Amino acid sequence: MRTVITGIGLVTPLGCQVEQVWKKVCEGESGIRPISEESLMVFRSKIGGECLDFTTDGYMDPHEAKRIDRFVQYAVVAAMEAVKLSGLDFTKEDRSRCASIIGSGVGGLAEIEVQHQKLIDKGPSRVSPFTIPKIMPNAAAGQVSIQYQLTGPSYAVSTACASGANAIRDAIGLIRRGAVDVVITGGTEAALTKLGMSGFCAMRALSERNDDPQRASRPFDKDRDGFVISEGAGILVLESEEHARARGAAILGEILGAGVTSDGTHITQPDEQGLEAARAMTLALNDARVDAAKIDYINAHGTSTTLGDLAETAAIKLAFGDLAKKIPISSTKSQMGHLLGGSAGVAAILTLLTLRDGVIPPTINLENPDPACDLDYTPLVAREKKCSIAITNSFGFGGHNACLVIGR
To answer: Can you give the C-alpha Rg of the chain in angstroms?
Structure first.
């Protein structure tokens, strides 16, 4: 059974409206700025991709908004935008055949910090009764299912930065088996917090190009010095083709296949040879029943870390052989940083829009290409190219590799 996309919603450092974000991506605009939260300016890395335009106004009651963590707010708002675009009216649907599967790498990190500080400063009696419901990684999927009173499967997937892609893979699995008609899926994250910044800075994983934030995220560039932490969500509405056509929905694209593997080598460092990342791409192509020669574009994971970009380059070469140098590739993280568990959902949406408009987004800041990253990474400016089928890669700490094949 074919799985089609009928709705998309975004919350990103470049904005919260899909067409607005896409326009900025195509124009090569950066959403990276000095962090506005003063308490976060004590770290070596003082830059990030904040969702400064985000608001829950008009989406949920202010009292309800206070009862959910920011990562959940992002998911709910993006889901509501996606559902609106899809035209779904859940009062006319069998809600037992509608699901919510949303990935997050770390869950409610901000709330953990707030409530832990209360525990230390004021004692256990002052810890909020909403603490656990706010921090649990499945809160986003749960709140989205509650928003629409969905009674089909509702759960979280947590595979670090591959979480959204794994969630989408699970979603298409349910649809293919005929278990559900509709799945709201993708990823969300809000880890721009003291603990999040502390942890990544301690690992020396973040860029410290603080004096030039908009040029800090530079995947595949020789001068890259780490990724830029960002936050947001990318949520899609997936349906069986039969269900979507029966209700007269506008079909935006199709999830053709997915592949997942694990490196099995290190908790944070990718396999330098890219063996299992390459196999994830091959599995995705096989699952989609698409020949490698049919791939018109690759949306790279490309986080701007030294090892990660090298490993992905190696993996693409392994997966595509002589074709690798002929496929246009780009990393949209060059513009909005790395949304961790939210990144794969965003990447899937941007890949879909690439297919829709025939515009390959640029890898901005790729001014001095790393000689070892010698593929066509679409440096600096967007490129017009009619595309029918594309791949999007997502790799996460823990050795998680996930690849989606998307068709126009």
So the answer is: 20
